C-alpha cells in the first residue's frame, strides 16, 4: 500500500509546470517601425504599450503573449507627422485608440527562435498576423524578447486618400520590438 505522504508528491510531479507571468521593464523596452515615404526611410515608434508574457522558461511555445499599443503615443520625429498619423486616414486614433496582437500559437523554429502566430486588431480590423521572436536569457534571470514583423498597411486601411499610393508611402512597414522581461 502506498504511504499517504507519497501521494501528494506524486500528484505534484504529474502536474504540468505553471507558466510564469513575466514583468516588463518598460524603460528598456521599445516598439519601433520604419516605413518608406517616396522611397526614403522614416523611423518612428510608440511610447506607450502594454506587454503580457506568460511562459515557462524551458518551454516558451506553451506560453501566451499579448501586446497592446496606445496608438496616440506614435512618434514619427515631427509634430506634424505625429498629428497626421493620428487622423482618420491613418490610424483614426479617436475611434481606434489601441492596436492589439495576441498570439494564439508559439512555434519553435530553433534554439531561442520562435514565430508568434495570432491576430492583430488595428483600426477596427482583425487579421491573422505573425511575428518573429528571439528569446535571449539575461544574467538577472530575465529574458530579452526581440523580434520583427512586416505589416501591410493596406490590409488595415492605413494611409488613405493621397497616401494610399504605394509609390508615395510603401505598403510594407518594417516593425521591430525589444522587450525586457524580468522574473
How would you characterize this protein structure?
This protein starts with 5 loop residues before the first helix and ends with a strand. The chain has helices at residues 6-14, 79-86, and strands spanning 20-37, 40-46, 49-56, 59-70, 74-75, 98-110, 113-122, 125-137, 143-152, 172-182. 9% of the residues lie in helices and 57% in strands. The chain has one domain (19-182): Lipocalin, CATH 2.40.128. By secondary structure, the chain is mostly beta strands. The chain is built from two helices and ten strands. The protein is elongated and about 50 Å long.
Name some characteristics of this structure.
eight-stranded antiparallel β-barrel, 183 residues, single chain, 2 helices, Lipocalin, disordered N terminus, mainly beta
In short, what is this structure?
With 183 residues, the protein is mainly β. Helices cover 9% and strands 57% of the residues.
Mean pLDDT metric: 90
Look at the structure and name the CATH superfamily: Lipid/polyisoprenoid-binding, YceI-like
Number of helices: 2
- Quaternary form: single chain
Strand proportion: over 45%
Instruction: Provide the CATH topology.
Output: Lipocalin
Which regions contain 5 or more consecutive residues with pLDDT less than 50?
Answer: 1-18
Given this structure, which CATH class is correct?
Mainly Beta
Number of domains: 1
Counting DSSP E segments of at least 2 residues, the number of strands comes to: 10
CATH architecture: Beta Barrel
Percentage of residues in helical conformation = under 10%
Order of helices and strands: HEEEEEHEEEEE
Which radius of gyration do the C-alpha atoms yield?
20 Å
